Amino acid sequence: MTTGVRRRMGVDERRQQLIGVALELFSQRSPDEVSIDEIASAAGISRPLVYHYFPGKLSLYEAALKRAADDLAGRFVEPREGPLGARLLRVMRRYFDFVDEHGPGFSALMRGGPAVGSTTTNALIDAVRQAAYVQILSHLGVTDPPARLELVVRSWISLAESTALIWLDGRRIPRRELEVQLVHDFAALAAVSAAHDEEMGALLRGALADEPADGPFTDLVGRLVALAS
Amino acid sequence: MTTGVRRRMGVDERRQQLIGVALELFSQRSPDEVSIDEIASAAGISRPLVYHYFPGKLSLYEAALKRAADDLAGRFVEPREGPLGARLLRVMRRYFDFVDEHGPGFSALMRGGPAVGSTTTNALIDAVRQAAYVQILSHLGVTDPPARLELVVRSWISLAESTALIWLDGRRIPRRELEVQLVHDFAALAAVSAAHDEEMGALLRGALADEPADGPFTDLVGRLVALAS
């Protein structure tokens, strides 16, 4: 049924195209600096037509953010197989892939971008954090986390965010090193909590029971003992 | 020169009074829920008079936030005497005092309060983080921090923020435990970084050289070694 002339897109198809174009521009430069004119031009349509699909830049920004949030949450999903340290390391690699791909947009969002304070934006950010939290608990095999475990997991998630933001600001440390370091940071924060609380100690010993001698957790303990001696 | 009738306040004095009244209300309930009428009533003046001193609630909120930020930054100042772990622990106690006193306002601000996204608010939050960063470097005796030290210090500051926020949400863990835990977290994150980088290792060994056998750092290493064995 192609006629040789440019096919007219349906409403949903056009919206999806605009979201994709906007997300790519918002990922390359701070969203503050991207105009609707630019988005229209990159999509090959007129400025008024963009407004036909999205009432304003904020709604297009939020739609792009929704797609990015779904993408990121999807990268947290990891098969429940093999040692925990190796699983977390694979997730960290995909997390830094995402941060690398969306650098300027990620920084602007987390440091206070155009839509910060909007209810939609905050809800999207919280949903991604919650997705990370749920994944980690599921890999630990915990359904009813004690308060100290919730604290360790949620505060580590915020540590991973700030580590990524600091990395983006100049990229002065190789990301491969930071990916491993965040796995070690998780183990270290859990170990500190376990050092204060017997329930956390039992949880951590259970989680580490299947760690291989060459895994990242075992690697960390060896390094810490060497440093302390 | 008192006349027995209520003395009329000068402009600056009245502004300072309103800031104090507003800060107290913003500290007890989320600033979203505090009205100008309430502030006027608590200050014993009329609503229009409040607007005479502050053009709107945002400007009064920002002034209250400025005072709270200065207060918090002041609590980071600690004499450069004695072991580092004990110094950091004293700062953590004062930090939790502040968080405790300003709970609802602190939560609302850090989770996305009425003025989040405002340039003034973001600048005030950044200034407090920077004050914490500068204090820590100064206690470590470092003037030109390598990238990995900057990462450890700044990401630990964000960990301290998220730990305080999670604590405020239900207060399910005793704050005294979290104050010590954050000191241990700092040591643990520094140790992870030192395990990856020789320069960080030398820095950490220097910092720990003066730690007493009963200090929080030594305590942590003992607990970690016990846990690993």
From TrEMBL, chains A, B:
Pfam families recorded: TetR_C_46, TetR_N
HTH tetR-type domain sequence ranges: 12-72
Superkingdom of this protein's organism: Bacteria
PROSITE patterns, per the entry: HTH_TETR_1 (PS01081), HTH_TETR_2 (PS50977)
InterPro entries: DesT_TetR_C, DNA-bd_HTH_TetR-type_CS, Homeodomain-like_sf, HTH-type_TetR-like_transc_reg, HTH_TetR
Location of the DNA-binding region in this protein: 35-54
Gene3D superfamilies: Tetracycline Repressor, domain 2
UniProtKB keywords: DNA-binding, Transcription, Transcription regulation
Entry protein name: TetR/AcrR family transcriptional regulator
Organism name: Streptomyces nigra
High-level lineage: Bacteria, Bacillati, Actinomycetota, Actinomycetes, Kitasatosporales
